[in-house]
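Table S2 (text version). Query chain:
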Amino acid sequence: MNSDNRTNQMKSRRITPKVATTGTRAFKKNWTATGHDQIWYRHLSDGSVSLATRVEKKDGRQAWHTLSSSHIDGAREEVKAIRSSKVEKPLRRAMPTVRQYLLERVEPAIENGHQDRRTRDASLNNLYQILEGYRHPNWETRKNEVGKPVRKGSGACPRQILDKHVDRITDEDLDEWFSGAFLNPYSLSSAKNQWSVWKKMFALAQKDSLIFARPEWKVPLREARGREERYKLRTEGKSRDLDVITTDEFFAVTEEIRKHGHLQEGIAEDSANWAELLGTTGLRKGEIAELRWKHVLWDEKRLVLEGRTKGNRRGAQHLPLNSEAIRVLRRMWASGHTREAFLTKTGRKSTRRVYRGSHALGEEDFVAPFVTAEEACERACRRLGVPVQTPHCLRHFFACECVDQGIPWSVLADWLGHIDGGTLAAKTYAHVRRGVSESYADGWSLGKRGERQAC
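Corresponding structure-token output:
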């Protein structure tokens, strides 16, 4: 027997309940949770194992559904089939409410976590914000984004949601929580931190066999940033300023990543190339992540962006490549690194960096060897003492470089994937770079053309 088969058998023994003799401690007469995908087990009179799940009948009555398989893997497949039929629903009997579960299960889990004390205290504070709302002593002097006074407890999760059973929380409930939580002096980061508590609750509920799957809801970042902008504009009288680095700072950051980015061979170089490709093309992080070598048209000096099909544009967009971007792409090709898809231990899809060699890279291979090198970029910025650059900041850097070099707004809008002809780009980047306006003013003058040339 090879090692792989032996390992698989050992895993099966750990997750599949064993046969038990009647009268022993291992014998389970009543249904007992296995901890896997809403599957319960019990022993029959002869000691064999019977697996089951809970289903809800058409008349609303709940009952045990005995599974034909006695092995956990086969039981999982049967449960998947029941889920696809939209018949199965989580068990409601003794189901805790959200409030109860946060206090009785999530709070102890955070308190007994492996993180340091400061991190645990921050997570507990986020949990109490969900339950109790804004609790800072200055609540009497604060106003929310619409200018109304903040009451003590503002931003707490609505009572009707906290009183719901854990298995009955929907995406609409989370939308309601988010809209209320943001009508108070919370920043976007605070809302994200509260959402991390919700995710922890769903993860524990799934582990405790209370729910089948976690909600697919995510914090609507675009809406959240807009509301945060309005709040800052109302309270501070100003909106967020774009702090874009200069060209020299950009080259310094990429060189810092290349020299001190990562101890493992090749990762620092790949991270620097990733940052340079963002800064020389203006692509979004997700667009680079989906870019494959078949999308690079070397002879035509263009990129094919299949994801840019919004608005009235038909088909994929063809983005012209400048010489700097081509140079970076050639370095990425020469590195021979790409990434491949794989399944994690929990069954989730992910990708990892692999080396194939430039001679073995195919059209379907990814251009970027990892989804993001944001951490390497941020660490390099902090070491150099320049404004921290996120992937979207590097997109702003590219746009500002285009403005400085006199690229028309309509062309810049097309390069960035905007469909408004340059209106948004003009509003955003017209006066971002310090000194650009003054440099144009120095060259402006009145008089006849010949007189201006003479001056």
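Notes on Table S2: The CA atoms of residues 37 and 212 lie 6 Å apart. The beta strands are 32-33, 40-43, 49-56, 62-66, 296-297, 302-305, 317-320, 337-343, 349-355.
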